Amino acid sequence: MPQNADHKAVLSRTSAFRLRRLNRKLHVSDLPVIRQVGFAVRTAGRSELEHMSDFELFRTSFNDVADLYDEVRPGYQEFVIDEICSFAGMTIDSRILEIGCGTGQITLPFARRGYSILGLEPSSTMAALAIKNCTPYPNVDVLQTTFEKWPLPAETFELVLSAQAFHWIEPYSGCEKAATALRPGGSIALVWNNDVSHDTPFYKATEPIYDRYMPSEGSTDRTRACIHEALAKAFHEIEEIRHPWERTYSSSEYIKLLKTYSDYQRLPEPSRADFFRAIADVIGRTGNAVTRRYETQVVLARKI
Question: Which domains does the chain have, with CATH numbers?
Fold first, then answer.
C-alpha cells in the first residue's frame, strides 16, 4: 500500500564522517519486486557450518523464516543504488562481493544493472531463495557460507556490499577482511533499513507489550558506533547517507514482518504467541493497519 512521506533534509558534518539526509518523497510501490523462478543451492562444505559459535548459529536462525523474509522485508529504492554506484565509481565490469545477501533484496537491483556479484549467505534456505530470485542474472553467484569462514581472494572486487547484515560480523576483523577483498580504490557500502517510528501513536501504544516481553538492551547504537570505529582503521572518506520513508502494513503483513526479526524469533513459547496476540489486539484497536517510518542508512567508505 503506497504511502507518501514528507521529509526535512538535514545536512551535517563531523570529523569522523560526512552525513547527508536527502529530501525525497518515496513510494513503497517502487521497491524491488522479488521474482519466483526455479533454483538449485550450492554449499561451501559441511565442515564450515558444523563448527559455528553460538553467535553464528543464531545468524542461521533465519532458515525458519526465509519465505516470510522474502515476502515482507522492505527492499531498497533505486536512488539508493544510484548513490552507492556513484560513490564507488562503478563500471559495467565492476565486481561486487555481497556479505549476507539474504534472499536477494539488494542483490537484484544491482544484478539488473549487469554487475557481476558474488553473494555470501550462511542460511541454507535464504541462499536457496537468493539463487531462485537471481536465476535470470547469470552474473550472480550465491555461496552458502559465512563471510568469516570464506577463503577470500585478495584485491578482487570493486565494491563490498552488505545490507541488513554487517552487524552480525565482528566489526574490526570484518572491516579488515572487507578491505582485503577490494582492489586499490575500492569501496564498501553498508546498508540498513532502520525503524524510526518511536514517536508514532502505535509505537507508544505497544511500549507496555515490549517492556513486558522484550526489554530493550540498547545494543544497536553501540554496534553501529563500533562499526564506524572499525571502518576508520581500514577505510577513509567515510560518508553516511540517510533516506526517510514510510510504509503502511495491514495487520497480517505487520505480524509477518515482526516474525522475520531475530529478537522475535528467540522469544520462548508461550511468551512468543502471547506477544504477537497482544500486538495484533493493538493493531485491531488502532485501525487494522500500521504505518512504519523507516530511514535507510547507507555508510560508504573507500579503501585506504
Answer: 15-192+218-245+296-303 (3.40.50.150)
